[in-house]
Write the structure tokens for this entry.
Amino acid sequence: MKKPAGFYKDLKLPLYMQAPMADVTDAAFRKLIAKYGKPDVLFTEFVTCDGLCSAGRKNLLKHLIYDETERPIVAQIWGGRLEKYQETAELIGELGFDGIDINMGCPVKNVTKIGGGAALIKDPERAKKIIEETKKGAGNLPVTVKTRIGYNRIIVKEWMEHLLETEPAAITLHMRTAKEMSKVEAHWEEIHLAVEMTKKSNTLIFGNGDITDLGHADEIIKETNLDGVMLGRAIFGNPWLYDRNRKYEDILLDERLTVMVEHAELYESIFTGINSKSFLLMRKHILAYISGFKGAKELRLRLQSVESASEVKEIVSSFKSSVEFQEI
Ligand SMILES: Cc1cc2nc3c(=O)[nH]c(=O)nc-3n(C[C@H](O)[C@H](O)[C@H](O)COP(=O)(O)O)c2cc1C
């Protein structure tokens, strides 16, 4: 039996977790998710160590806002400069997070070109140093890694061997290579080796990629014996994703629209002043809530250029009092 580190030891395995998604699972959306169907663990969007350890810190702290209802909440970090990981880990501790996750999976050029994210798969010695540096600053907080199964090709065995040398509290494998981005189906057949390799360690092993809902997650866990899974894009427009008692089909449109307005209001109230973010990012969410019903197309058109929560509210109340809505 594994002995999980930090807060993981207080949780019942297997874990159902929300994967971090930059500009999607921000403080507003996570607060809503925690209210309507809380996953076992939540992660912040990734935030750069280099930026956090510079004069620009104040502009990045909006990515590290969280609410007590989200606990356990893990901060995800990435960076190009090895020497900034320890200081960042200390800051994460001071901010009261429950854990630190290092991003070693992001394939985006701006991240990999400075040696961050998935670039670390090609430089395992540096990856191991980064984990050690982060641990130095993390105190008692568990340090975990979220990565992919290779860069250009699948190298589960050698990559896992390297990572396991540093004994991270958990490794999450997104079951695609960096080169594949999200364009092909996740290679779930590769997970068995990773599960086997962590069996004799205390490192938890989590899988990620293309999981559509909790039922699908259950099937994957049953087939693989994973310690947990992360669901990413399935959360779009569905903060009820982790509620076992309600299926998405059971959420009436009336409630869906009410929660969408609540989401927009939360977004506006959290991301204000120094923490302000463009309402454009909120529009992506709005469009995700509006699908699969008669009149959705027209309503999407009316909402596609909204600039504020009050506009969203107004359009939704006018839709709710319309004949189309009464007929749904
Ligand atoms: C818009 C978007 C933003 C993402 N941002 C992050 C991130 O900040 N950190 C991270 O580790 N992964 C990030 N990912 C990857 C997801 O966490 C996840 O690994 C990927 O979407 C595959 O899971 P899924 O098929 O369940 O969506 C992002 C993915 C998307 C679509």
About this structure: The chain has two domains: 6-235, 252-327. The mean pLDDT is 97.
